[in-house]
Write a structure and sequence with these properties.
about 675 residues, binds 1-deoxynojirimycin, about 15% helix, TIM Barrel, 13 helices
Amino acid sequence: MRLQNPLLIALLSLLMITCSSRQRIGEMNYVDVFDSPNGLSELTVEVKEGVLFYQFRYNGKEMITPSRLGMIFKDADLSEGLTLDYIAKSGVNETWTQPWGEQKEIRNYYSEARLYFTKNETEEQMNITFRVFDDGLGFRYEWPQQEKLQDFVITDETTEFNLSGDHTGWWIGAYQLNRYEHLFNETPVSEIDTVHTPFTMKTNDGTHLSIHEAALTDFASMTLANNGNNSLEVDLVPWKNGDKVRGSAPHKSPWRTIAFGESAGDLMTNYLVLNLNEPSKIEDTSWIKTGKYTGIWWDMHLGTKTWGSGENHGATTEYTKELMDFTAKHGFYGVLVEGWNTGWDGDWAENSDLFSFTESYPDFDLQEVTSYGDSLGVKLIGHHETSTGISNYEDQVDDAFDLYNQVGVEAVKTGYVGDFVEGGEWHHGQFMVRHYRDILKKAAEHKIMLNVHEPIKDTGIRRTWPNMMTREGARGQEYNAWSVDGGNPTDHTTIVPFTRGLVSPFDYTPGVFNLLLNDKPGNPNNNRVRHTLAHELALYVVIYSPLQMVSDLPKNLEARPDAFEWIKAVPTDWETTVVPIAEIGDYAVVARKDRNTENWYLGGITNEESRELEMKLDFLSPDQEYTARIWADGDDAHWESNPYPLSIRTQLVNSQTTIALELAAGGGVAIQFTPNK
Ligand code: NOJ
């Protein structure tokens, strides 16, 4: 039976679950087809002699060919011998509001089918819920309360994603040191081994898809292993003893998700992963703010100051106040101060147990700097680097958040430098998934916003906990300062928004104006930023983050006042986002409307190729004239030989205007559109 009629869907949505239909089956063989609300997608579910398969069509195209589902426990194999007892069908059509974000109103519109299974003979119970969206699919396993499956261990998940072809994929490998901080590879799927998600692909006919997961809160994270013949199988990141997941029924897996789009831009504005997370558990979100921040940070990455104590110590009262003056003068939200607390001396990455999260170095007075900040309207942004000393951090975190509450710190950056945790746990296994979730909840109790470095990947949990502001989880700007390969290649920023960055704020930390890093002592690996200044400006729109850094040293930012004007103007909270044109790895143009004014902002970037991109400004309001202030690459700009020239001009435009964006090699463009009255 198909759920196809939009009227029926609308009615079902109104009455929600109360109106869901429940059908008794009691078979080990069954086939059913479920359409998305507007019929653009179609899910087929088949039970064949007790084994479960699904397949999926998007926009008339077969995208997932029959693929197995199932979960294997230490004491029960729930991948075969299953009887389908019932199917319950329902649907939802609602619009919800993000308290902050890249898109204010998000539509959640899907048809749902929940299948209830019993394992033959041993009688364990398992449900699988499918949500069929016009632009993708989500499904999750659930083990209801039952006598069986108490204190269970999952040893394998048999979920497959059998692809319809050997698509082009952009990926980073799983099970590597340095967590997610790798350059993306572009290869056919047949050449991958085991990869992290989101795993973005493009088919021969230009359809884009991304396999990922939603609401990862108490499970191992999902990686994808290549089984050959275009077949990917879930590979759960294990605990150090080899268990994959530990739990006790009732328990749920995260949603396994496949988002589709006709273009790379469609993937960026596909909100399926957020929709599959639970609504906010924080009722009053008025304390959660977005904004731009400076920091005692780039100095340490350049090597001009130190985290540890001594004559070059960065986090001094005096330097913090200086930065607070600068931050207030330019109207930014706050100042991140790293290295303020004891424990950084010696090899801090190895001595995680020495960190105190409440004791300041003697030359840093927390009370004095926060009071000074208050007098200027500038916030201190706290910092907790754990270097993966999890028990040391968990023992202190309540006191540490209390202390920040006392002095009015509203946002904290956390860090987990290290390859393994507690003698062998991965950052992506269930142990750390639980830790990240628990710290986030604790932060919410203390009304503290988080910016997590070396995080678990983003699975949309910010919908449920909107104090989860931003995170790292990729190679960020810091690699330009010290990576032995000299820094991020020019095309990195044209790939990241469509892979790691999908529906996920990224604390990339833009805002380096001294692209050649003249402040860096020595510079044996020729580190530098490998794009032009206009490209650096455009990143404030292309890479979304609600807390957006302004990373360079004040003297470098103030040395280029025209460019700095853009950073001061660009917002961090958006009404809506559109992606007029983009090709992963080549170029990306993103436009966003400010949430608090009628202004639009556009960022466009290219890889090492120069190019002219023509596009219609049809996202602007019709019948409205705008002044476009354009920060573009200047004459002869080139990322390698001449990265600084900027040409700043204005132009009158409206929604019918076709604009030509001229991007230098490694270049970019940033545009502010202000309506004329
Ligand atoms: C790595 C983080 O990514 C970086 O931002 C931070 O400065 C250092 N760890 C120290 O915590």
